[in-house]
Design goal:
Blueprint lengths: L15 E6 L1 H10 L1 E6 L13 H11 L3 H10 L3 E8 L5 H7 L6 E6 H7 L9 E4 L1 E3 L17 E3 L7 E7 L10 E5 L2 H4 L2 E4 L5 H14 L4 E3 L10
Parallel strand pairs: 6-7, 10-11
Antiparallel strand pairs: 1-3, 1-4, 2-3, 2-9, 3-8, 4-10, 5-8
Length: 232
């Protein structure tokens, strides 16, 4: 279930967000009605869930001769799971390139408000939504008075991601997390529109339409704006 965390920066409810994914992951989302959340230390960025240099130095002073103090933070990364979304009023050509392959893939368009509504009370995991802040890890501090803060900061090199995250700390549940977990989600509230890859072949577009019809999902399927005809 979604829980509002007063310490976490949350964009306005009408903020448009996107998730770019391949067809197999999209179908898994629809059929299971569950959102995959990846274990934080499995992300490609090795700094995920870690602290900036100034914060690390401060933590070392606090920990003193107690190495277990720092080990707790390292272990914490294995118990935090994340679903990443991209903030943008429009489609992103860069996101298509990064998250889809072979000119095949889909983009889910939603809003912050829809994400909040979709994370229903039947989910046993507490889920928090927060906007990622991009900082200089050599100069700027990351607060450590909230367990979620390390997962809502990234290096400035990743600013292009414009990321908002659904974050869950599963430490209280004592579950064994491999690559991640699946969390229950209200699909109809989550998805506002579906966009098909702008460079996909006609057979692929037809396949998406047929699957949506056969599965009985009434989502509005949009032609990519990047596929628009030129005017001259």
């Amino acid at each position: 279930m979604f829980v509002q965390n007063e310490d976490i920066t949350l964009p306005a409810e009408d903020t448009i967000v996107w998730k770019y994914l391949d067809l197999s992951k999209f179908l898994d989302l629809l059929l299971c009605k569950q959102l995959f959340m990846s274990r934080s230390d499995k992300f490609e960025d090795q700094y995920e869930g870690t602290f900036s240099e100034p914060t690390f130095e401060e933590l070392k002073k606090i920990s003193g001769d107690n190495p277990e103090f720092l080990d707790k933070y390292k272990q914490h990364r294995k118990n935090v799971v994340i679903s990443s979304w991209h903030i943008n009023e429009y489609e992103s050509y860069a996101m298509w390139q990064i998250f889809t392959k072979n000119n095949e893939g889909l983009a889910i368009q939603s809003t912050i408000g829809r994400l909040q509504q979709a994370l229903g009370p039947e989910n046993r995991y507490e889920q928090h939504i927060g906007e990622v802040k991009y900082i200089d890890y050599k100069k700027e501090k990351i607060p450590f008075d909230n367990n979620f803060f390390p997962f809502l900061f990234k290096r400035k090199s990743f600013q292009y991601e414009r990321e908002v995250r659904i974050v869950s700390d599963l430490s209280p549940h004592h579950v064994n997390i491999n690559e991640g977990v699946k969390a229950n989600v209200d699909i109809n509230r989550l998805i506002e529109k579906v966009y098909i890859h702008p460079k996909s072949e006609n057979w692929y577009k037809n396949l998406v339409f047929q699957l949506m019809e056969q599965l009985g999902f009434p989502f509005e399927i949009e032609k990519s704006d990047l596929e628009s005809d030129i005017l001259i």
